[in-house]
Design a protein that fits this description.
2 domains, 7-stranded mixed beta sheet, 46% helix, Lyase 2-enoyl-coa Hydratase, Chain  A, domain 2, 11 strands, 2-enoyl-CoA Hydratase, Chain A, domain 1, alpha/beta, globular, 11 helices, 274 residues
Length: 274
């Protein structure tokens, strides 16, 4: 196992079997986002985009939480700060758009498959972080909540779009308006979670899934993800054109040739050969 430097103890990163595991490491704050954690997460997601030795990214939280979203204590500091310079509405909007695009948009459109492993609560922006991943695996004690109504916010980090894509506008509005806790089994039935497992099986289940994905055909997976992401924003004709282009691009890849040879030879394929 290799340890990757993130520049802060608030974000831990390891690489093993082509899987990078990113651990949000503020357990006493339920892994709430901070001015150290969040920039480090943005940067490592960017750094991992072109790494050929990485086939899958897992994001999880230390302790018994995934991520509680924004740090409420930090919001209080902003309210009481007396020496802060006035910032225009337009400047605040531009800054927030940049923060969102370099985190949840970057994660949603990342070329590597991503898995959120939830050992506990995901709330607010932390829920959005999980929604931006391709797959979500949770333990039975996990719950999620939009939480924004509890702090008088309307929502950010793409949650309204990401959740709506999974459960539709009616359920999305209900969860935003009420802010209620959605327990793991209900989240599974709604399609928010892909899998729910006993608490003591989360680590091993996610490790097996991530390793299986990480050692698949990387180029093809990147195109699959692009096709599926765009499908929700385009018509069938556009989808067919994109699928055709990406499939033709896959044809000359070593992974495709290996898969065909393995099928003919009646053996499992070995992808991502050096």
């Amino acid at each position: 196992m290799d340890v990757l430097d993130t520049g802060t103890d608030e974000l831990l990163a390891t690489l093993e079997d082509r899987v990078v595991t990113l651990t949000l490491n503020r357990p006493t704050k339920r892994n709430a986002l901070s001015d150290q954690l969040t920039p480090a997460l943005r940067q490592i997601l960017l750094d991992l985009e072109l790494r050929e030795d990485v086939g899958c990214i897992v994001i999880t939280g230390a302790g018994s939480a995934f991520c509680a979203g924004g740090d409420i204590s930090g919001m209080g500091d902003n309210l009481t700060a007396s020496d802060a310079k006035p910032v225009s509405h337009e400047a605040q909007v531009r800054e927030l758009i940049h923060r969102q695009e370099t985190l949840t948009l970057r994660l949603h459109s990342h070329p590597k498959p991503t898995i959120a492993a939830l050992p506990g609560v995901a709330a607010g922006a932390g829920f959005c972080l999980a929604l931006a991943c391709d797959l979500r695996v949770a333990c039975e004690s996990t719950f999620v909540t939009t939480a924004y109504r509890n702090v008088g916010f309307s929502g950010d980090y793409g949650g309204s779009w990401l959740l709506n894509a999974l459960v539709g506008p009616g359920t999305t509005k209900e969860l935003y308006f009420t802010g209620r806790r959605v327990q793991a089994n209900e989240a599974l039935s709604l399609g928010i979670f892909n899998t729910v497992v006993p608490d003591n099986e989360l680590t091993t289940t996610v490790a097996a899934l991530a390793k299986h994905i990480a050692n698949g055909p990387a180029v093809a997976f990147g195109y699959m993800k692009e096709n599926i992401n765009r499908a929700s924003q385009s018509g069938l004709r556009e989808c067919l054109a994109l699928e055709a282009d990406r499939l033709v691009r896959c044809a000359p890849t070593p992974d495709h040739r290996e898969a065909v040879s393995a099928c003919i030879e009646n053996r499992p394929p070995v992808f991502n050969k050096p």
